[in-house]
Amino acid sequence: MPTTSETIRATGIDCVCYLAKDFKRAMNFYTEVLGLRATQESDNWAEFELPDGAAFALGHLPDRWYPAGGTMFAVPDIEAALARVRASGVTIYSEINDSPVCRMVWCADTEGNNFALHQRR
């Protein structure tokens, strides 16, 4: 068991995210059926902020898809968090991805569930 100084100490859940095989079809479902409105949108990514402050994101990776949503855990230091997760031996899907509003990296837990380490700018 790691000591307290070795743990990541996630500070909250920034967002829950799903991958879409067909991004346009998925966007239609979430906007037309559930009534969500994107607060940020590109060709392969959309973020929605709900009235209660919760956030939901929908993404499309042109070269891969895996079934399952993923929670984006807020971390204060994404490099340190990634190093700790990498040392645990679980799957890391990519290096840290930078965007204008955040930095994130997608991983899997010991059971194969997807999650992201997420640091807002």
Per-chain topology:
Blueprint: E1 12-19, H1 23-33, E2 38-41, E3 45-49, E4 55-59, E5 69-74, H2 78-87, E6 97-98, E7 102-108, E8 114-120
Parallel strand pairs: 1-4, 5-8
Antiparallel strand pairs: 1-5, 2-3, 3-4, 6-7, 7-8
Brief account:
By secondary structure, the protein is α+β, with helices and mostly antiparallel strands. The chain is 17% helix and 36% strand.
Q: Which outline best applies?
A: globular
Second rung of CATH, namely the architecture: Roll
Strand order of the largest sheet: 2-3-4-1-5-8-7-6
Q: So how many helices?
A: 2
For the sheet with most strands, the description reads: 8 strands, mixed
Q: Termini separation (Å)?
A: 31 Å
Structural overview:
The protein has one domain (11-120): 2,3-Dihydroxybiphenyl 1,2-Dioxygenase, domain 1 (Roll), CATH 3.10.180. It contains two helices and eight strands, in the order βαββββαβββ. The protein has helices at 23-33, 78-87; strands at 12-19, 38-41, 45-49, 55-59, 69-74, 97-98, 102-108, 114-120. Strand 3 and strand 4 (55-59) form a beta hairpin. The mean pLDDT is 87.
